[in-house]
């Protein structure tokens, strides 16, 4: 599956900036394949419109004044109405780390009293020569408790990164905790506080999400996928997959062929 860069979406972009701010309805549809992955972070604010946004196989309604956040490696597809309009922000991975651009939820809805202010920030970003201060302010504002949105902690972000980088390894929770320089108990408590899951459950969720991607968008068979993701054997992987999704790997493939 194609993993798109910002300049694939916006041809001719000056790469040194590491970001792009645009008006949704004024931007030509890019010549890309759907669904796809991004190698960058994106934030899309629908001021008007309806439809469906599919992120990692979960469907979310497109509604007025709903802001979607899509992280690198997530599989993304959408279908929106022709009258949709709004703003979007694309940020590459290097700059995103400096801006703390890493949201834990796929969307959030703006409060009515915040709409005009957020719009003013986007207008400023589109007109200022130096857009970074406004971008940084927007991200901090949307991450604030007033937006009813909670950012995930740095330790959990790092924990997820280690899992993703080592899918094939059967690390214990103690080993993950050692890499994070914390105890197993603290790691479990952080995971529960931030996600409602234990460290082991979060690890399994990430592996199952990657399994879904591989089942639909790779040529690997079930046995190869189970090995790639560090499961003991194919039957164990299939049992865990069914427990998490209520479908066997084969049934999952059949159900989601419509997204290919």
Low-confidence stretches: 145-151
* CATH-defined fold name of the largest domain: Jelly Rolls
* Multimerization state: single chain
> What fraction strand?
15-25%
Shape: globular
Radius of gyration: 19 Å
So, CATH architecture of the largest domain?
A: Sandwich
Q: Please estimate the helix content.
A: 40-55%
Structure annotation, total helices: 11
CA-CA gap between termini = 10 Å
Give the strand line-up of the largest sheet. 1-3-8-5-6
Within CATH, the superfamily of the largest domain carries the name: Regulatory protein AraC
Pairing-aware structural class of the strands and helices?
Answer: alpha+beta
* Number of DSSP E strands: 10
SSE arrangement, N to C: EHEEEEEEEEHEHHHHHHHHH
Query: What is the domain tally?
Result: 2
InterPro entries: AraC-bd, Homeodomain-like_sf, HTH-like, HTH_AraC
GO molecular function: DNA-binding transcription factor activity; sequence-specific DNA binding
Protein name: Transcriptional regulator
Keywords: DNA-binding, Transcription, Transcription regulation
